[in-house]
């Protein structure tokens, strides 16, 4: 306030004026400003407007966190997980979220509580689309060129994630999202640009969530994905919203929360039923198959796998870029996981071998997963030496080890061969894993 030469009354008036320009009712007074300066709580909507006032005056990006409204980043407790009722609340929550550290992993206890998750899914399914405010007064105007730039950057970070794991680009992407993307959501744009802008912002938030999941910070991943889901409500993109539910299902299954994984996958199927392409339906349904396989429901898993295959057979090259990764090779990899979890040796080995053979080597992490499933499939068939060989190939690709998920594939495999620890081939493999992890830390 000293730098901007604002008095309490001056800041309060500027906040009321900006809110009124946007059709929002904000009754901020100089008394409220003083309370905030003294440490009282502030609503996210008011905090976001205040931050924009300072950004405009000081000619640099100012966030609510920069103003000290939510405490310092290093001492901040994790945000409660909740599906934001209003768009300003969602944007404020995302701004705060980008300031959280991502290095430390979290346990499954920090994921979305059941009640919050059910409320979020229900809200997404029943709430109407009505929040893109076109051509409103703002100091910055956004065009399609800005949208294309964000999409290019997001695709670049997605490629880094595929090549080196989620930890590699997460810090840079969250800085880009905070400084370059979020400010544009409060700028001025046409209805067409606004739709495209919120679509790409939701996609970027989803990538941040997926990266956090890959590095093992499940609480952070949950919150990014939940807020990305909230952004799809702005555009009414049911198909992309359902894909986020499928991602949450994937994570829940990974954490052993199989009933939640099944609920989320089926919510994706039902939530986008009327708008999803065959390719999207195949992706949602295979997540249902993964959850059913994890609980040993053989008939249910087979039914879902068959449905996914039939959907993909009807897919055309047309469709959103974010879904292009889901092709026949991806489906084969998912089949190998399903049959592994169903403990069906012949089918698991068949699909795992095909997945390894058909996965593009540039997707090092995916290929690493496929090789580890192949190793476990050999174990199911009683072929220890072949299993060690496949796992050794996977570990030799050091880039994949930057994924916490991949490391767990390896350590799970080590546990399964633990009864043979005295054998030279097993001891050599365990030593190689230790050396690979040490090299990665260096």
For the biggest sheet, the summary is:
none
Order of helices and strands: HHHHHHHHHHHHHHHHHHH
Structural class, judged by helices and strands? Answer: mainly alpha
Number of strands: 0
Low-confidence stretches: 71-80
What is the C-alpha radius of gyration, as a whole number of Å?
24 Å
Q: How big a fraction of the residues is strand?
A: under 5%
Shape: elongated
Q: Overall mean pLDDT score?
A: 87
Number of helices: 19
**How many structural domains?**
3
Structure description:
By secondary structure, the chain is mainly alpha-helical. The protein folds into three domains: 8-75, no CATH class; 83-236, no CATH class; 343-442. Helix content is 67%, strand content 0%. The protein has 19 helices and no strands. Helix 7 runs antiparallel to helix 8 (191-214), helix 12 (278-294) runs parallel beside helix 14 and helix 14 runs parallel beside helix 16 (364-380). The chain is elongated. The two termini are 45 Å apart. Residues 71-80 have low confidence and may be disordered.
